[in-house]
Write a structure and sequence with these properties.
mainly alpha; 97 residues; 3 helices
């Protein structure tokens, strides 16, 4: 593997004076304020969200069983995590009611 030349070596080879490094300013835009997502108003809405997430996880599991592999497993696990989160939200809402 060839060794890469430094800036000083390249400047010497080309016969030019090496320019000092130029400082670079980076502008960073402020992040917009995030508003919380609206919370479902009723336990029925939470149940519908959990039911849909559970159905999606079941379909993803069936697809992974039909075609085993890492990609299918990742899809299944993501769907399962969403279903678990929806179930926890439903349980949390029921506990506070």
């Amino acid at each position: 593997m060839k060794r890469r030349h430094t800036r000083a070596e390249l400047a010497e080879l080309l016969g030019v004076a090496e320019a000092p490094p130029v400082p670079v300013a980076v502008a960073v835009a402020p992040e917009p304020a995030l508003e919380p997502a609206p919370w479902p108003a009723t336990p029925e809405e939470l149940f519908v969200m959990w039911s849909a997430a559970r159905a999606e996880a079941n379909l993803a599991y069936d697809a992974w069983c039909a075609r085993p592999g890492t990609a299918g497993y990742a899809v299944y696990r993501a769907a399962e995590d969403r279903a678990d989160a929806a179930e926890a939200s439903l349980a949390g809402f029921a506990a506070t009611a």
